[in-house]
Write a structure and sequence with these properties.
45% helix; alpha/beta; seven-stranded parallel beta sheet; TIM Barrel; 216 residues
Length: 216
């Protein structure tokens, strides 16, 4: 599987069960780690967590919730700046791909997911983040608003044949749609892990990505 992916993602479920050992063991496979722990706490606590995560040499990407405040994001950026050359890239999570506009309204957030994601992306860039996590639906607006060098990582990827299956992802896209929108990285979970043939599913998605990049 290592030869089929650009990076492995470790989420809060695996990290809670196995801790830093999971990072070291999976990182030994080669591609590097996106440590997807979605930090959201007071600035000092997040800065400490980011500092500790950056000490895991296999980690290439880290993330936090951009809604955690400007102060929290700036504290995290300062913590990474103390790590010397080539620290992990820091991403701000905008609006989770499981959320729709009605979900935002129910928790007191006004506006559409696109509007909120763009606003949070701009704030994250001002704070010094390297990029954001956002759905494919927001990529073009974020790219125009934040520039070519701002990383955009897109979860909620569903190949066309599985897009109609019900799950908790609301704002989804195919690999081709996400690449054509301008995504830098695609996060693909259940379409591979829940497949009858995970390596085959990963290979098919990699081939679709390559075709989309070739035709872009």
């Amino acid at each position: 599987m290592a030869g089929l992916v650009g990076m492995f993602k470790i989420n809060i479920q695996l990290f809670t069960a196995e801790g830093p050992d999971a990072v070291r063991k999976i990182g030994a496979l080669g591609p590097g780690i996106f440590l997807d722990l979605k930090y959201h706490d007071i600035p000092n606590t997040v800065a400490g967590a980011i500092s500790a995560a950056a000490d895991l040499r296999e980690v290439r990407l880290l993330d936090l919730h951009a809604t955690g405040s400007e102060a929290m994001m700036r504290a995290a950026v300062r913590a990474l700046a103390q790590k010397g050359a080539n620290p992990p890239k820091l991403l701000g999570i905008t609006i989770l791909t499981s959320l729709q506009q009605k979900d935002l309204r129910h928790v007191g957030i006004s506006g559409t997911p696109v509007e909120r994601a763009l606003s949070l992306a701009r704030l994250g860039k001002q704070c010094g983040l390297d990029g954001v996590v956002a759905s494919a639906k927001e990529v073009r607006r974020i790219r125009r608003g934040c520039g070519r060098d701002f990383l955009i990582v897109v979860p909620g990827i569903r190949p066309a044949e599985s897009a109609s299956r019900a799950d908790d992802q609301a704002r989804i896209a195919t690999p081709t749609e996400a690449i054509r929108a301008g995504a830098d990285y695609l996060v693909v979970g259940r379409p591979i892990t829940a497949a009858a043939d995970p390596p085959g599913a990963a290979r098919a998605i990699a081939e679709e990505i390559a075709a989309a990049l070739h035709s872009a």
